[in-house]
Design goal:
single chain; 327 residues; Phosphorylase Kinase, domain 1; five-stranded antiparallel sheet; 44% helix
Length: 327
C-alpha cells in the first residue's frame, strides 16, 4: 500500500513536470521534432514501397508483351536505371505496346488519376534529327498530337505524348468502300489547318512526311497528325537534311537531297496523301499521269484531280506556294 502510494505520487510529479515542460516552447519544439522523426521515415518507406509496387506492375506488363530482344535491352539497361522512371510509373499505368523497334518504341499508358490515355515514346538519340523538342512542346492544335513531357538519358529521349483514339488512315481507307468527295474535303481541310499552324509557328515547322501511316482518323472523322517529333525546323541548315526518312510515294523529290525542304514539301505530301485517300493507290508519277489521260476513271471530281496534280508538281515552284493559296 505504501509502495503504491509512493508510485502514484511519483507518477503525479513526473506527469506535472512533463506538462510544464511541454507547455514551454522547448518542450513543444522537442515534441514536434520527435513526431517528425517518426513521420518522415514512415512516409519515406511508404513512398519507396509504392514506387516498388508500381515498378513491379510495369515490369510484369512489359515482360508479358513479347517484345523484341533489342527493346528489352533498352528497357533493362536504360529505362530501368533512369531516376525519372518513377515519375512515369507513379502517374501512369502501362496499357499496351503500339509499336516497338530498336529505333523507336511506343507504349500506350493510362493515367492513374483520370484513366486518360497517353503514349510514351522512346527514341534513340543518335537517330534523332528533328526539331528542338522544347519548342515542339509548345505546339497545341486539335489536329496535331501534343508532347507534354520530355525526359532523357545519355542515349535516349523519353516523350510523354497525347494519345489519339482511332485508326491509322492507311488501314481505314483500305477497309472502307469508296471515300466520298465530301469526306475527302473534310480530311483536306483538317490537314490544311494543321499545316498552316505549323508553318506559321515561330520558327516555322516543316512536317516533311505526311503519309496515311502517321495520320489517325477517329470514329467521328477527326484527323490527328502523329509523330510530331520527326518534324523539322525551317532553318538555313535544311540543305543538310538527310533523305533516309522519306516514304516511298509520299515524299517530295527534294527530300532525296535535290533541294532543301520547305512548306512546299508538306504541300507535295498533302497531295500524295489525298491521292491515296481517293484511289487507295500508292501515289506515283505514272498513276497520276494515267488519271490525267483517263479522267473517266478518276473516282472524284476534276477539281480534286487538278488540286492533287498541282500539289505533286516535281518542281516546288509549280506547286501551291503556301497553304493560303488553296481555294
Amino acid at each position: 500500500m505504501v509502495m503504491t502510494m509512493f508510485q502514484f505520487t511519483a507518477n503525479l510529479i513526473i506527469t506535472e513536470r512533463a506538462k510544464q515542460f511541454l507547455n514551454s516552447g522547448h518542450g513543444l519544439f522537442l515534441l514536434l521534432f520527435v513526431l517528425l522523426m517518426i513521420a518522415i521515415p514512415t512516409a519515406y518507406f511508404q513512398f519507396k514501397k509504392k514506387n516498388a509496387e508500381f515498378e513491379t506492375e510495369w515490369l510484369k506488363q512489359l515482360y508479358a508483351s513479347n517484345l523484341p530482344d533489342e527493346v528489352y535491352n533498352i528497357i533493362n539497361l536504360d529505362f530501368l536505371s533512369a531516376p525519372f522512371r518513377y515519375k512515369i510509373f507513379n502517374k501512369f499505368k502501362f496499357a499496351d505496346t503500339i509499336r516497338a523497334s530498336q529505333n523507336s518504341i511506343l507504349f500506350r499508358m493510362v493515367s492513374r488519376d483520370n484513366n486518360e490515355s497517353h503514349t510514351l515514346k522512346i527514341i534513340e538519340k543518335e537517330k534523332y534529327i528533328s526539331h528542338d523538342l522544347e519548342e515542339l512542346m509548345q505546339i497545341n492544335h486539335p489536329n496535331i498530337e501534343r508532347i507534354f513531357q520530355k525526359f532523357e538519358t545519355p542515349s535516349h529521349f523519353y516523350l510523354v505524348k497525347s494519345y489519339a483514339h482511332g485508326e491509322i488512315l492507311f488501314d481505314y481507307i483500305h477497309q472502307s468502300d469508296r471515300y466520298g468527295e465530301e469526306s475527302v474535303i473534310s480530311i483536306t481541310q483538317q490537314l490544311l489547318a494543321a499545316l498552316q499552324y505549323l508553318h506559321e509557328f515561330k520558327p516555322a515547322v516543316v512536317y516533311r512526311e505526311i503519309t496515311p501511316d502517321n495520320i489517325i482518323i477517329s470514329k467521328d472523322a477527326k484527323i490527328t497528325l502523329m509523330d510530331l517529333d520527326t518534324t523539322k525546323r525551317k532553318t538555313v541548315d535544311m540543305k543538310n537534311n538527310t533523305y533516309y526518312l522519306a516514304s516511298k510515294g509520299f515524299a517530295a523529290p527534294e527530300l532525296f537531297g535535290l533541294l532543301p525542304p520547305d512548306e512546299r514539301t508538306d504541300i507535295y505530301a498533302l497531295g500524295a496523301t489525298l491521292f491515296f485517300v481517293v484511289t487507295k493507290q500508292i501515289p506515283t508519277r505514272e498513276a497520276l499521269e494515267y488519271f490525267e489521260q483517263n479522267p473517266e476513271d478518276w473516282p472524284s471530281s476534276k477539281k480534286m484531280l487538278n488540286t492533287i496534280k498541282k500539289c505533286m508538281a516535281f518542281d516546288p515552284a509549280e506547286r501551291f506556294q503556301n497553304i493560303n493559296e488553296f481555294g
